[in-house]
Automatic annotation (TrEMBL):
<keyword id="KW-0472">Membrane</keyword>
<feature type="transmembrane region" description="Helical">
    <location>
        <begin position="12"/>
        <end position="31"/>
    </location>
</feature>
<keyword id="KW-1133">Transmembrane helix</keyword>
<protein>
    <submittedName>
        <fullName>Uncharacterized protein</fullName>
    </submittedName>
</protein>
<keyword id="KW-0812">Transmembrane</keyword>
């Protein structure tokens, strides 16, 4: 029980992944579960979960609302968003017993992320320039 907490505290990479996953899940929860869905007139089946169109709208909303700190107006890393989405998919599979997306729907989500990168809303590459 104490070992996972110890690993998280001692390893900065694990700490970052835990914080980022928590952030993505909290945004997901507030977007889908706590009233955001009702105001958009979107219904989520309690067995299958959100469809790919709702997930795409969620990704677009998250990317638009991320504020990056620092003197330069940098965008978040594309790789970080993709890892957060993979964590979200794991949570959706756990939460909704029949959640399943087709290969075409996964490809569509990847295309949206690539489009956001092309628009400059996400940065490609391994790391950002240091401040």
């Amino acid at each position: 029980m104490i070992k996972p907490i110890e690993i998280t505290v001692k390893d900065p990479a694990i700490f970052f992944v835990n914080i980022y996953t928590s952030l993505v899940y909290s945004i997901y929860y507030s977007f889908f579960e706590e009233g955001g869905v009702d105001s958009m007139d979107v219904r989520i089946d309690p067995q299958t979960g959100p469809d790919h169109a709702t997930i795409i709208r969620f990704i677009d909303t998250v990317v638009k609302h991320i504020k990056v700190r620092g003197s330069k107006a940098l965008a978040p890393l594309r790789m970080s968003i993709k890892k957060g989405i993979l964590s979200m998919f794991a949570a959706l599979i756990f939460e909704y017993p029949k959640f399943n997306l087709s290969k075409h729907e996964y490809a569509r989500i990847d295309t949206v992320i690539d489009d956001l990168s092309d628009e400059g809303k996400l940065l490609r590459g391994r790391k950002r320039e240091q401040f």
